[in-house]
Amino acid sequence: MKKILPLLLLPLAFLCSAPASAALAIQSWTQPDGARVLFVANHSIPMLDVSVQFDAGQRRDPAAKAGLAELTVASLTRGVEAANGAPALTEAQILDGFADVAAQQNGGAGQDRAGVSLRSLSSPAERDAALGLLGRMLAHPAFPQAGLERDRALAIANLKEELTKPETIAEKAFMEAAYGSHPYAVDASEASLQAITREDLLAFHRAHYVANRAVIALIGDITEAQARSIASALTRELPQGSALPALPQVAAPKGVERRIAHPASQSHILIGAPAIQRGDNDFFALTVGNYVLGGGGFVSRLTDEVREKRGLSYSVYSYFSPLAQPGPFQIGLQTKKEQTAEALHVTRATLDKFLQEGPTAAELKAAKDNLAGGFALRIDSNAKLLENLSVIGFYGLPLDYLDHWIERIRAVSVQDVRAAFRKHVHPEELSTVIVGEAAE
Fold this sequence. Notes:
The protein is 40% helix and 18% strand. By secondary structure, the chain is of the alpha+beta class. A hairpin with an 8-residue loop joins strand 4 and strand 5 (89-90). The longest helix is centred in the middle third of the chain and has 18 residues, at 145-162.
């Protein structure tokens, strides 16, 4: 159920009371209940996008009940309890309520955070109806037993299907090799899902879906005064939460190798280790360098060496995925089983050479030009900007992060890339997982 994705490396995922960002005019404030709010007015279309996120991601799952974070957020729409004079609502009534005003509601849990989002018309009647439903879902979920049973059965069925796929087996084994017993490596199993009870959902919600740790992002056709009123209403009935237990530190990587037999025609190979946290100053140098190494598609070194020159793989990539604690650096590829040894050798040699020399001046310029030139496409919709605001708020990134993104990319030098890679990527610490080729 858990997979680190390279998308969060990209600019769209990296992003008090006064305008703090000239380009986006981000308004930000902290409510009396402790919730942090980020707001951008956009009157170009009559829509409002809202996100409410909490420190309720998969890293908060108890090890014996992995999957609890995902089941909790999935269950928010299964029913609402009667409260403050408002009647109880069934799942059908909740879904019909959003559909009646043409609103779209979604939710999900990642490694660090979990929460819900809403897209609604900005006209008052439709907007207020949708936001009222969202607020009730967050504050008064009923967590009916029947809904839990259905969600659990679906999660187990999906898990069984995923575990037949070599790419899923490889990712799970990679996280275990790279993170050991750290919560980032704990993944749902049939046993852990079966262990989750309705009381677990209630307790997890009570501990994590709290006003003082909420991060609310809003972008759309409303005023600041309306944004303040909406944000206040969304957390008004949420409790105050106690301090959460500290998570263990990510242990120093050990660089293990694991081979897992699988009948697939190709070997699925993952190489990497924990590398970088959100907000690390080396992010820009690593982003530029990774574009040259394996993030630039057909113009990357790994593609040139592994695919173009030797035909060892159709696709090969690398990425960094920053998290609240060091997230992974990973290289991935698939190759014919009989070519596994050669593909591994070429991949490792390409990385070693890059660590020693860094990019050429020409490679550096091309990477910076591409990243800077394509940046606008990553913030060209309300949905993309909403994710930026959510991440900026949750991880405490500067409000002017996007304003200075291009100039910080442009400022990266060959020496910066070389130093950043040498600091964060150590070949002896990289774990390797091979699914497909039997262990020797």
